[in-house]
Amino acid sequence: MYEIEKVSPGVVRPLRHKVLRPNLPFEASCLPSDNDPDAIHFTLKKDDTILSVASLYSESLEGMPNKNAYRLRGMATEPAKQRKGFGAMVLHGAMDHLKKETDVEIVWCNARVTAFGFYEKMGFTILGEVFDIPNLGHHKTGFIEL
Ligand SMILES: CC(C)(COP(=O)(O)OP(=O)(O)OC[C@H]1O[C@@H](n2cnc3c(N)ncnc32)[C@H](O)[C@@H]1OP(=O)(O)O)[C@@H](O)C(=O)NCCC(=O)NCCS
Description:
By secondary structure, the chain is an alpha+beta fold.
């Protein structure tokens, strides 16, 4: 019924734009590493409707340069479907994939302050000071060991 699929970056961009960058032009939903060979994009779908998306990029975490790390970006659930478990499903699917297919040790992200609770529920540790990302608001770094 629910399907987690590995997809091309173009498939995740419409929901990424709608949820994360609605006030910016559509091109702002293209991230510079989207087409890197190690980048992986996931959707959670039900009946061909995309409910949640997540993307992962091979990128080390400052302060932990010796850990094999993937960076989570573009984590977004369809607004009307938030808080129903779909973000957790796609993120767990993505991390299970990484554990099976790569030598990943940690996954990290720059988490919006409004989403700290989600990442904490997922087992992430939120680190350090709040910093501002222009147009996107206040963030802290979070990570989880896999
Ligand atoms: C953050 C987001 C991706 C979470 O996806 P979701 O589908 O709503 O999350 P889930 O329903 O799977 O939530 C899993 C758990 O985290 C909790 N949670 C989800 N979002 C939360 C939030 N913003 N604050 C606190 N807790 C949150 C849920 O209540 C749930 O807890 P439970 O297991 O006790 O029921 C989604 O709400 C979203 O797209 N938000 C806007 C965009 C955004 O902020 N993205 C992250 C950018 S860093």
